[in-house]
């Protein structure tokens, strides 16, 4: 498959009154044409910062891409001027956020909001842009699109508004769509509908998707690959099957154990005790050591390198060293009993 995005050794810091917060530390992720990658982690893990760095949407005054490359079709987005990035953002790479209300302008009809990007990037006439807006509303399953194109955001329900936001993001046929917690603000039934819609749209349009989420449960049906982030680093990455059925990092075990499972009603759900590391003073060793029930001395002293478990599966944990004791995942982290 053709590589479309390659993030290499990304390091992002925020400059705060308290000092430098090293929010993203040495992140490597890639995305092939038409594929879907989920980036999963708790809040503060660096997942949203990574996605905003790709879009170059981080605050210029207080943040900095300190090191690394964000290669999109060979161009390093980290080094583009704001003007060059403007041409890519919204046309080649689009982003949708958690709360559709904050992404939409309450004073403009949704038709105008969809047409704005089309007129800016695709040089369409007003009539052509309106026709395309109606087709996009059809694509995201908004009933009566010819009428609703003239309505305002407050006339739509939360789920419908998120569909409109998706229509805006897809307006210019982007090659990559970054969805940052796209269903978190919605109720459970609507969440499922939006995820179904995204999967359907991916098949129809071939847009590659990066799904940013704290919820492993939303990953299974939408993403082919998963990257698990913790403390500003990627701790495990693999195909969705590898991460769900053969997880190797204790943090991934914790995430899986805290996820409700239909086939395991009587299994205990385990929360991960403790809090993420303070990235003003990131630990020198494994970022998960303070919360890990299997931590050894080496874990606090040295950062583990990523171990290759297959051509697609890697995890960074000292338990994968051949000298480490053999540790099995907790029962609650076993999905479907297959391993
Ligand atoms: Fe736990 Fe050590 Fe592995 Fe980190 S490296 S996850 S502390 S066992």
SSE map:
Blueprint: E1 3-16, E2 19-32, E3 36-40, H1 47-55, E4 63-72, E5 75-76, H2 82-88, E6 93-96, H3 100-103, H4 110-122, H5 126-139, H6 145-148, H7 158-170, E7 176-180, H8 188-205, E8 208-213, E9 225-230, E10 233-239, H9 240-245, H10 250-257, H11 297-301, E11 307-308, E12 314-315
Parallel strand pairs: 3-8, 3-9, 6-7, 7-8
Antiparallel strand pairs: 1-2, 1-4, 4-5, 9-10, 10-12, 11-12
Helix pairs in contact: 4-5, 4-7, 5-7, 7-8
This protein binds iron/sulfur cluster.
Subcellular location: Cell membrane
Pfam families: ABC_tran (PF00005), oligo_HPY (PF08352)
GO molecular function: ATP binding; ATP hydrolysis activity
Detailed description of the structure:
The chain is α/β, with parallel strands linked by helices. The chain has helices at about 45-55, 80-90, 100-105, 110-120, 125-140, 145-150, 160-170, 190-205, 240-245, 250-255, 295-300; strands spanning about 5-15, 20-30, 35-40, 65-70, 75, 95, 175-180, 210-215, 225-230, 235-240, 305-310, 315. β1 and β2 form a beta hairpin. The model has no long low-confidence stretch (mean pLDDT about 90). Bound molecules: iron/sulfur cluster. The site of iron/sulfur cluster has 14 residues, from loops. Keywords: ATP-binding, Cell membrane, Membrane, Nucleotide-binding, Transport. Pfam families: ABC_tran (PF00005), oligo_HPY (PF08352). GO terms for molecular function: ATP binding; ATP hydrolysis activity. It is a peripheral membrane protein.
């Amino acid at each position: 498959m053709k590589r479309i995005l390659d993030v290499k050794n990304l390091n992002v810091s925020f400059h705060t009154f308290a000092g430098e917060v090293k929010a993203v530390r040495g992140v490597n992720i890639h995305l092939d044409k038409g594929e879907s990658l989920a980036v999963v982690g708790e809040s503060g893990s660096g997942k949203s910062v990574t996605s905003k760095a790709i879009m170059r949407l981080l605050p210029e005054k207080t943040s900095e891409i300190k090191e690394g490359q964000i290669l999109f079709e060979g161009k390093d987005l980290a080094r583009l001027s704001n003007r060059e990035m403007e041409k890519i953002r919204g046309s080649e790479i689009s982003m949708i956020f958690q709360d559709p209300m904050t992404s939409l302008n309450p004073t403009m009809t949704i038709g105008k909001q969809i047409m704005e990007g089309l007129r800016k990037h695709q040089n369409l006439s007003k009539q052509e842009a309106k026709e395309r807006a109606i087709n996009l509303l059809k694509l995201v399953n908004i009933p009566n699109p010819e009428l609703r194109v003239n309505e305002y955001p407050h006339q739509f329900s939360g789920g419908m508004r998120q569909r409109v936001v998706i229509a805006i993001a897809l307006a210019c046929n982007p090659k990559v769509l970054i969805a940052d917690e796209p269903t978190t603000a919605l109720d459970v039934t609507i969440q499922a509908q939006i995820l179904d819609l995204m999967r359907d749209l991916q098949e129809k349009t071939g847009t590659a998707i990066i799904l940013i989420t704290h919820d492993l449960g939303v990953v299974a049906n939408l993403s082919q690959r998963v990257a698990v982030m913790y403390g500003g680093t990627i701790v495990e990455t693999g195909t969705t099957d590898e991460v769900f059925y053969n997880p190797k990092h204790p943090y991934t075990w914790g995430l899986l154990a805290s996820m409700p499972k239909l086939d395991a009603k009587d299994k205990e759900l385990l929360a991960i005790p403790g809090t993420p590391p303070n990235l003003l003073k990131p630990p020198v060793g494994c970022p998960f050591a303070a919360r890990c029930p299997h931590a050894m001395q080496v874990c606090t002293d040295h950062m583990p390198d990523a171990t290759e478990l297959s051509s697609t599966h890697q995890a960074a944990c000292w338990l994968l060293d051949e000298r480490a004791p053999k540790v099995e995942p907790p029962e609650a982290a076993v999905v479907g009993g297959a391993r």
